[in-house]
Amino acid sequence: MIGLTFFATLIAFVALLIWLSGLLTRKMRPGVGKVLLRAVMVVAVFPLMVADEIIGKYQFEALCKANGIASIDQSLIQGKRVQIHDDYFSWKPLPGKIIPMKVTTRRIKDADTGQELV
Q1: Tens digit of pLDDT for each residue in 57-109?
Q2: Cα gap 50→111, rounded to integer Å
Q3: Which of 17, 81, 84, 101 to pair with 46, CA 20 to 30 A apart?
Q4: How many CA atoms lie within 13 A of 108 on its CB side?
Q5: pTM, full prediction
Q6: For the CA atoms of 44, 49, 51, 56, what is the dihedral angle to 10 degrees?
Q7: Can you spell out the DSSP letters for 47-76?
Q8: Cα 23 to Cα 17: distance, rounded to the nearest angstrom
Q9: 3-class DSSP state for residue 80?
Q10: Helix, coil or strand: residue 60
C-alpha cells in the first residue's frame, strides 16, 4: 500500500511540475525552445522532492563516522525483559547542520530489577 501511495504522490508531483512549467512559459511562442525549457525546468526541480532525505542521509553518515555507532552486547540482554528509556527532554541540537538534527541518550534497563544494561 505504501508503494501505491508513493507512486501516486510521485505522479501528482510530476504533474504539478509540468503544469507549473507550462504556467511559467505560457507567454513564449510554441516551438522546440519552449519544450526544451519546460523539460529543463521539470528535471531541475524534481530532485527537490527528496533533497532533504539526501542531505539528511549524508549528515547522519558523517555524524556516525565522527562519533562512532554504539553497539550492544546482546549477551547482556539475552532472555531478559527490558525497558528502553529515551531521554526526550534532554535533546541537544547539533550546530552547523543544514537539516536540523538533535542527539539524545537511549538507555536499556532490566524491566524487573531496574539495572541499566546498556
Answers
A1: 888 888 877 776 666 667 777 888 888 877 767 677 778 777 777 777 777 88
A2: 40
A3: 101
A4: 13
A5: 0.47
A6: -170
A7: GGGTHHHHHHHHHHHHHHHHH------HHH
A8: 10
A9: coil
A10: helix
Residue 72 grid cell: 550492544
Q: How far is CA 32 from CA 14, 36, 46, 58, 77, in A?
A: 21, 6, 21, 38, 66
CA–CA separation, 94 vs 42, rounded Å?
Answer: 34
Q: How far is CA 84 from the centre of its chain?
A: 24
Cell of 20: 507549473
- Tally of CA atoms within 13 A in the half-sphere of 92 that contains its CB: 5
Q: Please give the single-letter amino acid code of residue 99.
A: I
The Cα diameter of the chain in Å comes to 77
Helix axes 2-24, 32-45, angle to 10 degrees: 140
Residue 93 amino acid letter? P
